[in-house]
Amino acid sequence: MTTHAHQETRILIVEDDQGLAQLLQEEIEDAGFKARISHTAENGLAAAQTWMPDLIVSDLRLPGADGLALLRQIQSGMSENTPDVLIITAFGTVAKAVESLKAGAEDFLTKPLDLEHFRLSISRILEKRRMREELSRIRTLLDADSAFHGMYGRSPAMLALFQQIRQIARADGPVLIQGESGTGKELVARAIHEESDSTAGPFLAVNCAGISEHLLESEFFGHAAGAFTGATKARQGIFTEAEGGTLLLDEISEMPAPLQAKLLRMLQDGRIRPVGSNREQQINVRIIAATNRDLEALVQAGDFREDLFYRLETFSLQAPPLRERGNDLDLLTGIFLLQFASALNKQIESISAHANDLLTRYRFPGNIRELRNTIERAVVFCHEREIRIEHLPPRIRRDIENAQSKSSPLLPNGIQIDNNSLPSLEEVERRYIRHVMTMVNGNKRLAASILGIGRRTLYRRIEEMLQP
After folding, report:
1. What is the pLDDT of residues 168-218, one digit of tens each?
2. DSSP per-residue codes, 100-141
């Protein structure tokens, strides 16, 4: 977002040629922005300080102070919400262009003004401003340490999750965290630990699929000296090491059935027995289990103990996938961009509109982990100030292209729509313009009034319709 919402984006025109100023105002307002005109640099500075525009379009040669002087006053005199500046002039030279850009102008256009280039330049400047302000907002979040225990999110799904974590952390029972791969289940577990009364104790995480099955029991519960070949001395297990804290059992679905039974017993009476020992020991550990599989389906299939499942789901949480988190995608993209650009000492300021559009449309099956890796790759390959589409992984582009080629809208009754049988919005617009022009016998002023657009816009649409 810019300083104002899109429909409130403000552009100040500082131009002594009244005809050109009005033409530029019409172009800007046709694009959906608000526009005002000042005819001198002095009036322009006063308007900038009171109206607070997002962008100033200024002629370089003005009566009295020139556009370059106005630019320098804007840069030095407005500490908050400083507007961007686009310089235009009929006396464009390389020296003047360099001087304006060095003084802080975002772009430099020469007269006679190409209106298409003018529109593109405004669009680029405002998009860059939007990304700059978004990154500034994200940087403020990072500096203020406003993340919820390492998790960032403002979507309803994440705010609800944060509230659930706060409530569950106060209890003592086991917790089951379910969610797709890459959704941040370990971060959720750490947040529960840090919000609990056991935060002073250790937090340990173990991947149940990453330990050899015949060593699992010894790893979890420890063993006595001589319990098996190679056990020359007693060893504490993970449960004992986590005493007074929290133990995360990741990929709990991969735990063998015999160990599931022992885990259930530990949850019921708080005791464990090391392998080869005749003595049980009392432990005080909170168990958090996590999985990316449907445990209930595994229970029904006989692949997971039903009694353990019901014991674990005393408090159950769902880590939402990235595709259900709305604008959190932009937030996380900005955070990762800042982190990796800083780590690699790169001055990357933004992501192009095209690249950002691809990221928005991509479903990210790998969720936050995949997004993080995507931005890291883009930062590594980007050697400019803006991440562009070519810096993104090829699979994202292929996925979007494949989705577009396979998309076939359906009517509510299931009938497939032939995309080629319906005209595009652009074609409907062209047909209607032709119809109105015919009805008013080619009177462009009257046609523009009926269509609700400016005459200059109508002229441009007609020119586009005449192009092959």
Report:
1. 999 989 999 999 999 999 999 999 999 999 899 999 999 988 777 667 777
2. HHHTT-SEEEESSP-HHHHHHHHHHHHHHHHHHHHHHHHHHH
Confidence of residue 37 (pLDDT cuts 50, 70, 90): very high
Name 320's Cβ contacts closer than 8 Å, sequence gap at least 6: 155, 157, 158, 161, 179, 183
Q: Judge whether 111 and 88 are in contact, CB under 8 Å.
A: yes
Q: What is the tens place of the pLDDT at every residue in 363-415? A: 999 999 999 999 999 999 999 888 999 999 998 988 877 766 555 454 444 44
d(CA 289, CA 273): 20
Place of tokens 């494949």: 402
Instruction: Please tell me the distance from the alpha carbon of residue 216 to that of residue 208, in angstroms, as a whole number.
Output: 8
Pick the CATH number of 156-320 from 3.30.70.260, 3.40.50.2300, 3.30.870.10, 3.40.50.300: 3.40.50.300
Confidence of residue 94 (pLDDT cuts 50, 70, 90): low
6-143 and 156-320, same CATH topology: yes
| In 133-225, beta strands by DSSP E | 175-178, 203-207
Tokens standing for 291?
């999985």
Give residues with Cβ within 8 angstroms of 354, minimum separation 6: 388, 389
- Output the CATH code of domain 420-466: 1.10.10.60
Specify whether the CB–CB gap between 119 and 27 falls below 8 A.
yes
CATH class of 6-143: alpha beta
**pTM, 2 dp:** 0.65
d(Cα 254, Cα 208) in Å, to the nearest integer? 6
